[in-house]
Write a structure and sequence with these properties.
heterodimer; A: 188 residues; mainly alpha; 9 helices; B: 174 residues; 7 helices; 0% strand
């Protein structure tokens, strides 16, 4: 794990053109704004679809509401495109941040959960003659989806409070410990 | 005004918001504010893109069902926003960007009411056909309202984010 996290930090730190752009006066705040706008799109499409699977707004056909999902994917693309530069610019602030570890785990779980929906329930839930009530498994998936995305938002918001700065032996760490003085030979 | 800020920042609640090291103080308030933002702006986006003609088989009249989700987000953010304001009144109230943010939210909410009225007017028994961009069952084309709504929420979110960078005073004592 130690080797892996040091490799991550060093690899990310090589993205110097991204870091240069992010360190201009508008780079970081602009990326943050895009990140939050993307969040709104994700919530606006995915949360509403999950609520529908749970039986909310039952008169809207699930199949019809699913057409909003591309807006959620577009929102996710915005959050990824604006989020990756944060990590490339200040890798040590994320790679050693327990809140970031949780955020990535929740996001991976949300992705697998969405994949599970498409594998197990999508066809039954969105057939032209599908009943208004989603299958029970789809409802479980919807609850997981809502919980995991709320977890992603909370862990993302908490990032600032768990920054390993100054990085020291008492630094926080969930999957990776904060290593002091590892910069010595890192290309920066 | 500074005397008012000094008094406010000395109150127990303001001090708690600012100085408590509990994760349930400032970090939790910020988290609630982010979730409320997603709900309020998210429902507005969903209604706006529906009014623009996307997801055409969603009955317009039924999009009203998401109004309580919007209001949940709105009130979560009013409450969490008031707490944040109470914690740092000088920081927010001496920053012109804060007033821009509030104005954009006011415009966004006014446009929300207009959009909700359009959805209410839509024929409850008519499901529009699969036509791409213009909802067939509306008397007034709401394209302009929907685009203005998207712009005002993007602006509200952006100015909200910029508050962290544009404040020139943090506390009344500074």
């Amino acid at each position: 794990m130690v080797d892996f996290q040091m490799w991550l930090v060093r690899t990310f730190a090589r993205a110097t053109p991204v870091a240069a752009m992010m360190k201009t006066a508008w780079g970081w705040p602009a990326a943050e704004s895009i990140h939050f706008i993307g969040l709104c799109l994700v919530v606006g499409a995915i949360f509403l679809f999950d609520l529908r699977l749970l039986g909310y707004a039952r008169r809207i056909p699930i199949r019809a509401l699913h057409r909003l999902i591309p807006w959620g994917l577009a929102g996710f693309a915005l959050t990824a495109a604006s989020g990756i530069p944060f990590v490339l610019t200040e890798p040590d602030q994320y790679v050693y941040n327990p809140s970031f570890h949780f955020k990535m785990l929740f996001m991976a779980a949300a992705g697998l959960n969405a994949a599970a929906f498409y594998v197990t329930s999508y066809r039954a839930a969105t057939a032209p003659d599908a009943p208004a009530d989603a299958p029970p498994l789809a409802k479980i998936i919807a609850v997981l989806s809502l919980s995991l995305w709320i977890g992603v938002i909370i862990a993302g918001r908490l990032l600032t409070f768990y920054r390993p700065f100054p990085c020291g032996p008492e630094g926080p760490g969930f999957l990776a410990e904060c290593l002091p003085n590892y910069y010595g030979d890192a290309p920066r | 005004m500074n005397a008012f800020f000094l008094w406010l920042e000395a109150t127990a609640l303001s001090t708690w918001v600012r100085e408590s090291t509990s994760v349930f103080a400032f970090p939790a308030i910020l988290s609630v504010h982010a979730i409320g933002m997603g709900l309020a702006a998210g429902v507005n986006v969903a209604m706006a893109v529906r009014l623009l003609g996307f997801a055409p088989n969603v009955p317009l009249h039924e999009m009203r069902r998401f109004a309580p989700v919007m209001w949940t987000g709105f009130w979560l953010n009013t409450a969490s926003g008031l707490l944040l304001l109470l914690g740092y009144p000088t920081k927010a109230l001496t920053n012109p960007v804060f007033y821009m943010k509030l104005s954009l939210i006011a415009i966004g909410m006014w446009l929300y009411v207009l959009m909700a009225n359009r959805l209410e007017e839509a024929d409850p028994h008519h499901t529009p056909a699969d036509s791409p961009l213009i909802p067939a069952d509306l008397k007034v084309r709401p394209t302009f309202i929907a685009l203005a709504s998207l712009a005002s929420w993007a602006g509200a979110v952006t100015t909200g984010r910029l508050l962290a960078y544009t404040a020139h005073r943090i506390l009344a004592t500074w």
